[in-house]
Amino acid sequence: MELTFYEAYLNREGFIHVAGVDEAGRGPLAGPVVAAAVILPVGYFHPEIRDSKQLNRKKREVLYQIIHQEAVAVGVGVVEPSIIDRVNVLKATLMAMSEAVYGLEVKPDYLLVDGNIRIPCPLPQKAIVKGDRLSISIAAASIVAKVSRDWIMEIYDRQYPHYLFGRHKGYGTKEHWEAIEKYGLCKIHRRSFCQKGADELPKLPFE
To answer: Fewest 10 Å CB contacts: which of 88, 106, 132, 149?
Structure first.
């Protein structure tokens, strides 16, 4: 299937502003969930835009700039760890996706959403499993979401250097777990994702 199949079909059906929606950061132990929504011009194609997981960091950041320059509109939504702990990561992801859609400067006619769940939004939409590999708009959104979240985690890396967030971006690597055992949890850790009893772990002295 061509990466532009869904967009081309919807364009023929009269939907001009089709937004792809995807997220980054559902699985990490720390940091926010970040979602993006991207509306590309009708008929748009770029041979290098694909699922962000298939691209290295340098290529993602180049494409991030291209997408912002060439897209009709780009929206980003961020939901912080405290909310993830309160409502669960699925609801937090849907919140971030909705925020990204409502952040678009151009109202979309239709949404293509990565995954198997529609987002809480009255716009017509289709959820597509592995949509970041089947839709160019979702692929573009996956790149924007991933790069945006990585940059956020690099800011946190400077605030909490003990955890090396710039290297693992909050995921549960061996060095991250070791840092948690040594220093406890900081403000951006998702307590619901960490080991049982995490709330009793010592906090860093500067918090």
So the answer is: 88
Between CA 26 and CA 72 the distance in angstroms is: 27
Each residue's pLDDT expressed in tens, for the chain with a length of 207 residues: 789 999 999 999 999 999 999 999 999 999 999 999 999 999 999 999 999 999 999 999 999 999 999 999 999 999 999 999 999 999 999 999 999 999 999 999 999 999 999 999 999 999 999 999 999 999 999 999 999 999 999 999 999 999 999 999 999 999 999 999 999 999 999 999 986 444 444 444 333
Give the start-to-end residue ranges of the domains of the chain: 5-157
Of the candidates 66, 64, 70, which has an alpha carbon nearest to the alpha carbon of residue 141? Answer: 64
Return the CATH fold of 5-157.
Nucleotidyltransferase; domain 5 (3.30.420)
Residue 95, beta-bridge partner list: none
By CB atoms closer than 10 A (0-12, 13-18, 19+), residue 30 is buried
In angstroms, the Cα distances linking 23 to 27, 32, 138, 200 are 11, 11, 9, 31
Please report the DSSP string for 69-127 in residue order: HH-SEEEEEEE-HHHHHHH-HHHHHHHHHHHHHHT-SS--SEEEEESSS--S-SS-EEE
